[in-house]
Design goal:
alpha/beta, Chemotaxis Receptor Methyltransferase Cher, domain 1, Rossmann fold, 8-stranded mixed sheet, globular
Length: 290
């Protein structure tokens, strides 16, 4: 890959997805894009770039999706799901007792392991959520990974990564060598394609936002901008969950960390958390099972 080709790809990825690659990530581009080039019948990255410059919108989309699809697995990193069970949900059950509704957004839902992990956590709560209206919205830049998430079908390798055996037995059905998550769990998750660089105020308000392991790839200004917009979509007493290597410190005043809860944040000022008046919540509700 020539330096001009690399610079072209860096700029394209930054403009299209916010992905901010340093000058020494050629190996990452080659590992992700060489298989795509070969699949398209091209000899290498150079030919791929030339075809993209020729105006192949479909190929540009494939390149962006190949570079922004991140690894995920069930109950990844464990700690955020401990926070969800032990801190977030007890607070929400109390604070939302009158209205009995809850909105959760997985802002980089990928192939579905994270939103379905949250759905299983909610199922495990059981009777305490009886009669509640619970929504989980999973968004991602890639339509391909959203389709996999919608299907809820995973390989033996995928279900063995992070998923407790008792949950596999309880919430999945085996189909040949694959496993499909049960329809009632799939029905708890709605899907929508979304680029975090674009306006998302129209999604409405959320009580909980999981935005893990995606902002780490953005530059500082982009992170700050997204944090500000996330704050405006959150209820004043809502919760933001970031990845283990991510933080709001030094990037925004819109959120404050919760003591002794790594990766967990709340809006810092109720005025920042209020959504614009035009941001109406879409009808995506799925009732949580008991």
């Amino acid at each position: 890959m020539t330096p001009p080709d690399y610079e072209y790809l860096r700029k394209l990825l930054r403009d299209q997805s916010g992905l901010d690659l340093s000058t020494d990530k050629q190996y990452l581009i080659e590992s992700r894009l060489l298989p795509l080039a070969r699949k398209a019948g091209l000899s290498g990255i150079g030919d791929l770039v030339q075809k993209m410059k020729g105006g192949s919108a479909a190929l540009i989309t494939q390149v962006v999706e190949a570079m922004t699809t991140n690894e995920t697995f069930f109950f990844r990193d464990k700690v955020p799901f401990d926070h969800f069970r032990d801190t977030i949900m007890p607070a929400m059950l109390k604070a939302r007792a009158a209205r009995k509704s809850l909105r959760i957004w997985c802002a980089a839902g990928s192939t579905g392991q994270e939103p379905y992990s949250l759905a299983m956590c909610l199922k495990e709560i059981g009777a305490a959520l009886s009669g509640w209206r619970v929504e989980i919205l999973a968004t991602d830049l890639s339509q391909e990974v959203l389709e996999k998430s919608r299907s809820g079908i995973y390989s033996q390798f995928e279900v063995q990564r992070g998923l407790p055996i008792q949950m596999l037995v309880k919430y999945f059905k085996q189909i040949g060598e694959l496993w499909q998550i049960n329809p009632d769990i799939r029905a708890m998750v709605q899907h929508r394609q979304l680029n975090l660089l674009h306006d998302f105020a129209g999604l409405g308000n959320f009580d909980v936002i999981f935005c893990r392991n995606v902002l780490i790839y953005f530059d500082q200004d982009t992170k700050s901008n997204i944090f500000g917009r996330l704050a405006r979509t959150m209820e004043p007493d809502g919760f933001l969950v970031l990845g283990a290597a991510e933080t709001v410190v030094g990037l925004t005043e819109a959120f404050k960390p919760i003591a002794d809860r790594r990766g967990l944040y709340q809006p810092n000022d109720a005025r920042l958390a209020r959504p614009p008046a035009h941001a109406a919540a879409p009808k995506l509700a799925i009732a949580a099972g008991g």
